[in-house]
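ok so for the tutorial part 2 we go from a plain amino acid sequence to predicted structure tokens. step 1 is just haveing the sequence, like this:
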Amino acid sequence: MEAGLITRADATDHGRALPVLLTPAGQRRLHAARTAVYAIEERMIEAIPQWRLAALLADLDTMADALTE
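step 2 — the prediction. this is what the tokens look like for a chain of 69 residues:
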């Protein structure tokens, strides 16, 4: 809230949790971060030979699944 990226309602219709919303500045920051992450992801994927990519993605899924067990 101090950075002006989110706003929080003063009250809620139900429960005790107050909704948090992105301000326009927060939306711009999120968009910039997503753009940067997608560009990095693209560079990383381009470094893997196409014939190896499916196996790598399957391995990554398996590792992520292991974290939730």
